Amino acid sequence: MAIKGFISFTLRKVLAAIITIIAITCVNFVIFRMAPGDPIRMMFRDPRVSAEQMQQVRIKFGLDKPLSGQFLAYMKELPKGNLGISFWQKRPVLEVIADRVPQTLLLVVTALVIAIIFGTLLGAMAGWKSGTRFDSIVLSVSLAVYSIPTFAMGLVLLLIFAFFLSVFPLGGISTPASGYTGIRQILDVLWHMVLPAISIIFWYVGEYVLLTRSSMIDVMGKDYITTARAKGLKESTVRRGHALRNALLPVVTMTGVNFAFAIGGVIEAETVFSWPGVGRLVYDAVMKRDYPLLQGIFLVFAVSVVLLNLVVDLIYGYIDPRIKVGGEKEVG
Amino acid sequence: MKGIREKFSKFTGFFSILWTHRMGRAGLIIFALFAIMALFAPFLRTVDPGRTGEVVNILQPPSLTFWLGTDDLARDIWSQVIYGSRMSLLIGFLAGALSIFIGSLIGLLAGFYGGKVEEVLMRFVDFFMMLPELPLMIVLAAMLGPSIWNIILVVSIVNWPTTARVVRSQVLSLKERAFVEASRCIGASDSYLIFREILPNVVPIIFAQAVLMVTWAIYSESVLSFLGLGDPTTITWGMMLNFAFESGAMSRAVWWVLPPIVSIVTLILGFTFFGTAVSDVMKPGYKEKLGL
After folding, report:
1. Which one of A57, A103, A299, B107 is CB 3.0 to 4.6 Å from B168, fit for a cystine?
2. Would the CB atoms of A149 and B219 count as touching at under 8 Å?
3. CA A290 to CA A42: how far, in whole Å?
4. B136 part of a folded domain
5. Per the domain annotation, does B211 fall within a domain?
6. What DSSP character marks residue B250?
7. Residue contact B132–A305, C-beta within 8 A
8. A-chain residues near B144 (CB < 8 A)
9. Are A199 and A153 in contact (CB under 8 A)?
10. How many other CB atoms are found less than 10 A from the CB of residue B7?
11. Mutate to test the interface with A, among B131, B218, B247, B251 (most CBs of A within 10 A)
12. Is the alpha carbon torsion for A63, A67, A68, A73 positive or negative?
């Protein structure tokens, strides 16, 4: 029974994700046809390029066809992984993006893991001691940190630690032409990662503290905490075994949603520190007016958010008994 | 007349309660400072902020003529910061208002009508919430071209769905209440029920949401401008940072970078404090605690 329910729950979630992805691809196409003016004109902002040459390029990119034809071609090529050719790098878009994915994953996973650990621990402690001096300090600091845009934090860190103190590099992922190998190379990359990671971590620590704190305060008003205390359990047992465990549930759900936000932070941090990832690629694509590349990156970001949310939903549906797997309903 | 006075005293009453909250007070003071800066910008500036100066004045450190120094085009930083507050507040409030308008309308309709209407509208909301915010804003801003009106449009298009969700869930519980039922029985029209009976009761939630939206709009504008998607002819704090970052002269001119950063962070912090205070004050039992 439960297994059958879980399968139908999974199928429904997967189907919804597929529909969302199809909708995203359509939206993606529409957005990029909204641009005023001719993309080929913008590509060659040089009046000396003749009309014939431009026509040739137009045929090459399939822009001579009517809009419906363009849409069909786009939908036909997408499943093959053809996202078009980057104006700027003159290479397939997918290839350009794929080259940058590992660096971004390294940065974002490291930063988020650290932020989640620190944020939930601090938040749980503050929530447990809510109303005390410790709590109000943690709360104000979190709100303050939460109000600093990642790029602004990055610029400040860059000024202090890279320009003035010179303890960390100005940007990039490795020392150019250092010839480091093995452990030296890994340390070099980590050394380059410190500042961009910190500028992402700050904001997310703030966010996770606020989330866990309010969730903890919520849970502490519940009857089962009173029951646990009434049973004569030790405070630390109640805190860890009963309160924290339940307080973390909404935090877990937020992790999927937060990933979408994390993309924002990554774009800002990578831009400030010239970290060669997908985020910096967004900035470069904007600066170079490379629309096919921008379109491709947006698609990759959007689809990965959908997939990640699907995974979180499925795991959550599996773990949390409160979600009725048969007729799943909003959990408020 | 009596109605207006009553509403006014309700309004001032709300602010005097906010004043009792430490964060509310801090937020109001910060907001007032920036509002004064924006309103009296022409009197506070020392030099025309857009005017490029003489070559000798390029990247000058703070002095009596240039209170916060100059940038690489010899423009006065102090005057740019002053005018920047105008843009941040303008964009923040307009984008906030637009997204609140769209979100509230969708939330009211979805919650009130239910059924198919709700299904379709909420699917739409869910879909929008799934899209990664900053990339979507970047893509739209890049496509629409650089202008502050486009930034306002983009920020509101991307940020309305949370409001729709919050308003809808509030409407769902309100529409079953007796006073709505009573009006319905007398034969009140749908639009009367929505805008006269339900809307006034959703206003507090919309207000709390509006503070959040304005904060987000200011935040988003600074990021988009920093990433080079703003209008280069309009001075905003994000744009100043974009120029400084692109110029490569950041390390030689701290006075160029710090004032816009401090301004952005202080203003956003003010709104965050204010928002926290608003949601605290709205919790049941806050007034009683004060003995009011």
Report:
1. B107
2. yes
3. 9
4. yes
5. yes
6. G
7. yes
8. 34-36
9. yes
10. 10
11. B131
12. positive
Give the count of beta carbons closer than 10 Å to the beta carbon of residue A180.
Answer: 14
As a whole number of angstroms, the distance between CA A188 and CA A14 comes to 41
The CB density around residue A270, as the number of other CB atoms within 10 Å, is 29
For residues A197 and A275, the answer to whether their CB atoms sit within 8 Å is: no
Which residues, 6+ apart, have CB-to-CB distance to A110 below 8 Å? A193, A197
Residue-by-residue pLDDT tens, chain A, 332 positions = 467 777 888 888 899 899 999 999 888 888 877 766 666 666 666 667 777 777 777 777 667 777 777 788 788 888 777 887 887 888 888 999 999 999 999 999 999 899 999 999 999 889 888 888 999 899 888 988 888 999 999 999 999 998 889 888 888 888 777 777 788 888 888 888 999 999 999 988 988 998 899 888 888 878 888 888 888 888 778 877 778 878 887 787 777 677 777 888 899 999 999 999 999 999 999 888 888 899 899 999 999 889 888 888 887 777 665 554 444 444 43
Alpha-carbon distance B237 to B258, whole Å?
10
Burial class (CB in 10 A: 0-12, 13-18, 19+), B44: middle
Token representation of residue A254: 């937020």
Is the CB of residue A190 less than 8 Å from the CB of residue A173?
no
Q: Provide the domain limits for residue B92.
A: 67-290
Q: Both tokens of residue A323?
A: 């979600």
Residue B285 lies inside a defined structural domain of this protein = yes
Measured between beta carbons, the chain A residues lying within 8 angstroms of B211 are none
d(CA A45, CA A23): 33
CATH number at residue B111: 1.10.3720.10
**How many residue pairs from chains A and B have C-beta atoms closer than 8 A?**
123
The answer to whether residue B155 is domain-embedded is yes
